[in-house]
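lol ok so funny story. i was supposed to be doing the assay writeup but got distracted and ended up predicting the structure for this chain instead. priorities right. anyway since i did it might as well share w the group, maybe its usefull for someone
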Amino acid sequence: MKTKNLLQLTIGLFSVIFISSCLDGIDEEVQTPTRAQEIQLLNTYLDSLAAQGNDIDTTDLGVYYVEIEEGEGDLAQSGDTLTVGYAGYFIEGQMFDSSNYNSEDGTMEFVLENPPFITGWDSGMKVMNEGSTYQFVVPSEHAYGSTGQGMIPPYSTLIFVVKMFEIKSAQ
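and the output, tada:
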């Protein structure tokens, strides 16, 4: 009986080590997408949003957005202090950042465009008012472009879901 359990344990450990080594190899084979691949993924994603009945609009800069929840009041403007909650995703669905990771209350406060974030983020904030929730689809040319940054690979379209809690006017 003990020999059978030892054999099962040995086989189990071998399986875990083997599968782990295979996964390490997969990570090394992941390639940076090309601009053409990004555009294909972006178009597929936008088509899926439209097929789900979402009304997709764009900012003046070219950031796509879907209004999830309507807010009230004036739109955010450059220099305003904004308090938001957000989650950032790669277009494939993996979360890469969230205000819940970065603060106890799950919010982030910042002055719009001072200093500027990625241009796509700043552009998106300007269509929001207090109480609104939006999904932004930010093509790489309005994010980290052909170079990427940190864990963001080059040619990565980014998805942000943002809730605007408060706008303190700069005036």
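The two ends are 79 Å apart (CA to CA). The chain is about 35% helix and 25% strand.
back to the writeup now i swear
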